[in-house]
Amino acid sequence: MNNRDPFNLRRSPGSTLLRSNSYFGRKESPEKKDKGLEESLAPQPSSSMSSYAPPSFNGPTHRHPDQWQSSKADGHTNGSVSEKITGMFNSDRKEALPMYKDKPYAHLKGGKRMPWFRRKRTMGLILATLAGLSWWFGVLSPLSYFSGNSDGLSARKSKSLSWFGSSTGTDWDDRAEQVKQAFKTSFADYEKHGWGQDEYHPVAKDGKKMTPNGLGWIIVDALDTMMLMNLTSELTHARKWIKDDLTYEQDHDVSTFETTIRMLGGLLSAHYLSTTFPDAYAPVKDGLSDDLYIEKAADLADRLLGAFETSSGVPLASVNLQTRKGLPSHADAGASSTAEATSVQLELKYLAKLTGEDHYWDKAEKVMQVVDRQHPEDGLVPIFIYAEQGAFRGNNIRLGSRGDSYYEYLIKQYLQTSQQEPVYQGMWNESMKGIKKHLLTYSYPHNFTVLAERPNGLNRDLQAKMDHLVAFMPGTIALATTGGLPLDQARKLPSWGPEQEEDMLLAEELMKTFWAMYTVTPTGLAPEITYFNVHDPPLMYEDLSPSERPRGPELSGVSTGQDDFSDYIIKSADTHNLQRPETVESLFYMWRITGDEKYREWGWRMFESFIKHTATPDGKGYSSISSVNELPPPLRDNMESFWLAETLKYLYLLFSPTDVLPLTDVVFNTEAHAFPRFQLGKLFTTGWERHQQGVEAKGEGSATTAAGDATSGGEAQAGAPVARERETETREQTREEVKTVVVEDTEVTGES
């Protein structure tokens, strides 16, 4: 962190915290502790309202943010003195002794005791050394007292990390607790001023319902975060609202995708946590039915299925909750987003498993069959698809908005059903080969790995542009490679080999690229969209052998200030930050899988920047901002539900013990809602085979073959990519069937 705070925007949220705490069952008074934490973490009020600017346009919101749901535009823990000193010398061994007891003088050669004056000198030297180290850490530095600012201490502590290789003295429990308090601050402000609203504006202290009676967009999306954080009072209030006020009998259309991932996903995750871990995560005794969540989920899903009533089975973009009638998109010539149509499968499959109703399952899997029958070249899908015809529209290829979670759900469907549906692993493998062949390039001059776009098709020019949304990819690659196992365990599997190592290295390099987005701005926060300077002609990943592929610069986990990477280009229309979760999502996966603590440190720097720069003027909440390049950044006066449901949840899990929701036991949907992995059983089956393929090759295609052995104990089988000749007549016939005016794909300013 910078030693100075010229704008006086924050004090270290953990400056008054000197004790370590566990997550569940503290011995001290929770009321007293929570109050102290809230006071220390609460954002400091601004001296004026100058940092607030009303939203200037109807901006993007979630993974596919140019949709309907938003009408508005968009501290270090210092530890005790004894912890700082002894933490430097103690090893991980429980029996480790203080330094001065390692070799008692009675053990010296000859067995003679040293003279007392010699012992005194030695002890004096040790004490002087400890005093010097204390000065370095800031504990005894008079400057820290004169300034009244803990940032100097934090900076010294940060410097020490590079000396010793890892932050052995870091209190991660305490950092998780500070994330929890940020959640409590945000949610308490919403409870007081916007309860039941679907949008919340933390500066104006008002909100808006998206349907006549509201859907509890913020409440339901945050349910499982409250549970993981053991917030029983907040959860009790939320459950009462769901029981008394939440109804789907409303004559209003909603986004099929967003309602599925946020509302249906939130209810299903809450059901999973409350029934599988009844005494662990915020157990409440409110007299309400244990089936509260699943009953609401089934009711909502039955209404959403109306969107799937198309000739092809691909869902329409929206659905009326009361009439259960699907509605095509009002834009994009009526086409649905490909990612949205293919990112409802985890939710509907889990609901099918819970209820035994296979029609949820069949509707979800039919979509995947239709997409595969379009023969996407090298596994890369255009970002639009006509629901009625089941045919792609245009040839815009990207892993940003409208394309992202298609790829995410391929591998997660494979993992969700315990590697019993290898068709999805095969599709993931093929897509990964296509990404490496067509989309991966390198920035200039520092050679960051860039996952670019092909807006006019795979045979046209590359566009070196990355949405923040693409930041899900490093973590997803790592998850696919090991199946959720820690890397050291996955490497012991017989199926592990050079391809697996290649994919893990790719995940690490992409993670660097996204973290650097946070280091090149004055606020320490990433913009919505980043462009890159690249080599001319582009240096492509697939054209280089593994030994020839460049690697980006090493980035310090304690980097402070603005890094001067000319590789990054941030355009004025893209400088906003919506408190998005994708980067911390990947940091969470990378930490869990590699065990490299730098990913936790990066997440902590990110959290500090959020707390410092997104605080509302009254110090009671946090808002998205209009520019990451301005100090102080103008506030957009909007708190997206994913701030609570995803960003703070992934930060909390990043700092939590690794046995909280192990990656080998769960899959997270694209809204960070946790579902269990399960066996297909006798009732469910994939129900379709890949068109013109049917070939399965053991161990071929991707590091996910290691994941199969890792988590199911069987031999993983991956559908091998097969060279297919595209028949021109068939393609032309498909275009004729669409019978629609070709609308040229254009980039919308600020689109993500």
Automatic annotation (TrEMBL):
Keyword Disulfide bond belongs to the record: yes
GO-annotated molecular function: calcium ion binding; mannosyl-oligosaccharide 1,2-alpha-mannosidase activity
Transmembrane segments: 122-146
Sequence ranges of Polar residues compositional bias: 13-23, 67-83
Binding annotation for Ca(2+): 670
Record-listed E.C. numbers: 3.2.1.-
Name this polypeptide is given: alpha-1,2-Mannosidase
Biased composition (Low complexity): 40-56, 700-715
Catalysed reactions, semicolon-separated: N(4)-(alpha-D-Man-(1->2)-alpha-D-Man-(1->2)-alpha-D-Man-(1->3)-[alpha-D-Man-(1->2)-alpha-D-Man-(1->3)-[alpha-D-Man-(1->2)-alpha-D-Man-(1->6)]-alpha-D-Man-(1->6)]-beta-D-Man-(1->4)-beta-D-GlcNAc-(1->4)-beta-D-GlcNAc)-L-asparaginyl-[protein] (N-glucan mannose isomer 9A1,2,3B1,2,3) + 4 H2O = N(4)-(alpha-D-Man-(1->3)-[alpha-D-Man-(1->3)-[alpha-D-Man-(1->6)]-alpha-D-Man-(1->6)]-beta-D-Man-(1->4)-beta-D-GlcNAc-(1->4)-beta-D-GlcNAc)-L-asparaginyl-[protein] (N-glucan mannose isomer 5A1,2) + 4 beta-D-mannose; N(4)-(alpha-D-Man-(1->2)-alpha-D-Man-(1->2)-alpha-D-Man-(1->3)-[alpha-D-Man-(1->3)-[alpha-D-Man-(1->2)-alpha-D-Man-(1->6)]-alpha-D-Man-(1->6)]-beta-D-Man-(1->4)-beta-D-GlcNAc-(1->4)-beta-D-GlcNAc)-L-asparaginyl-[protein] (N-glucan mannose isomer 8A1,2,3B1,3) + 3 H2O = N(4)-(alpha-D-Man-(1->3)-[alpha-D-Man-(1->3)-[alpha-D-Man-(1->6)]-alpha-D-Man-(1->6)]-beta-D-Man-(1->4)-beta-D-GlcNAc-(1->4)-beta-D-GlcNAc)-L-asparaginyl-[protein] (N-glucan mannose isomer 5A1,2) + 3 beta-D-mannose
Enzyme class: hydrolase
One of the GO biological process terms: carbohydrate metabolic process
Keyword entries, A-Z: Calcium, Disulfide bond, Glycosidase, Hydrolase, Membrane, Metal-binding, Transmembrane, Transmembrane helix
Pathway assignment: Protein modification; protein glycosylation
Compositionally skewed regions (Basic and acidic residues) per UniProt: 25-38, 723-739
Protein family: Belongs to the glycosyl hydrolase 47 family.
Cofactors (names): Ca(2+)
InterPro entries, per the entry: 6hp_glycosidase-like_sf (IPR012341), Glyco_hydro_47 (IPR001382), Glycosyl_Hydrolase_47 (IPR050749), Seven-hairpin_glycosidases (IPR036026)
Species annotation: Salinomyces thailandicus
Residue span of region Disordered: 1-84, 694-752
